[in-house]
Every structure is written in C-alpha cells, then in structure tokens.
Amino acid sequence: MEITPAKLNTFLLFKLPSAYLTGVRLKYLDEKQGIVTVKYRWINQNPFNSMFWAVQGMAAELTTGALVMSKIKKTGRNISMLVANNNASFLKKATGRITFKCEQGDLVDTAIAKAIETGEGQAIWMNAIGRNADGIEVSNFNFEWTIKVKS
Q: How many domains does the chain have?
C-alpha cells in the first residue's frame, strides 16, 4: 500500500492527534519532496501572536519523516526510523499559512541502500524550511534521522 497525503493525514488523526488538531497537514509527497502546511490559528498560537514553535516543529518533522516513511515502505523491508537530533532557527513571526518543504528524497534513497547493503544503521540530516504566504522564510529545521534494517 502506497503512502499518500490522505492516508498519512488520517494516520495523524489517530496516532498524532496533537498534530492533526493544530492543523498540520501533508499536502504533497513524491520521490523527491514532501510539503506540509499549517495555518496560524487560536489552537496553535503562542503569547506573542504567532505560531507556537512546537507546532512548526511537528510540521517540519512530518515533511522529512513522510519522505523517510514512504521510501522505507517501498523497499518492502523491515526498517526502523527515529529522530536522533534536531535543531531549528526562527527568523520571522509565523502567521498565516506556513508551508514546510523538504527536497531531499535522494539522501533517503542513498541511506536506505547503504543500510540494506551493510546491515549497519545510517544517519542522515534532513532540512525543512518553513515559508509564509509571501515566500519569506520564517523557520528552518534540521532533523537527524537514523534508519536501521531490523533482522
């Protein structure tokens, strides 16, 4: 079964309800990129009239994680995935609709192939940039994903 935005958004509702309730939605997923949006609303605000950093983090993580999940699924192998580290920079208040994009599907392909070939765990750093409706970067997240073939 292929991972699609609709299926992953349903998964959010049942397995990550805080992401779903705050408006985090996967909009697009293919071999190269993942796109997630979230709109600034009452439920995801901070006291400074912008989007809470953790909501941005959930959206950014989903952007990278959806790529990893879909690539693992396509191998048909039993491969675990986990975030080992992350960091972020916040450049502007996040208001309106924020779109997070990760275009590093090729990194995932390489890491999975190496994990399958060597049997050793692999780590990859993936970047998700959040932009407002004007295309201005509001936040920049990096996630270190670890993957390992289970025996």
A: 1
Q: What is the CATH number of the domain that holds 54?
A: 3.10.129.10
**What is the domain range of residue 90?**
5-149
Mind listing the pLDDT tens digit for each residue in 38-76?
Answer: 999 999 999 999 999 999 999 999 999 999 999 999 999
Cβ 33 vs Cβ 67: under 8 Å: yes
Q: Is the pTM of this model over 0.85?
A: yes
Question: Which pLDDT does position 1 carry in this prediction?
Answer: 66
Label residue 105 left, alpha or beta by phi (over 0 means left) and psi (-120 to 50 means alpha): alpha
Cα 54 to Cα 107: distance, rounded to the nearest angstrom: 25
Q: Is the dihedral of CA 34, 40, 44, 46 positive or negative?
A: positive
**Taking a C-beta distance cutoff of 8 angstroms, is the pair 50, 93 a contact?**
yes
List the beta bridge partners of residue 141: 88, 128
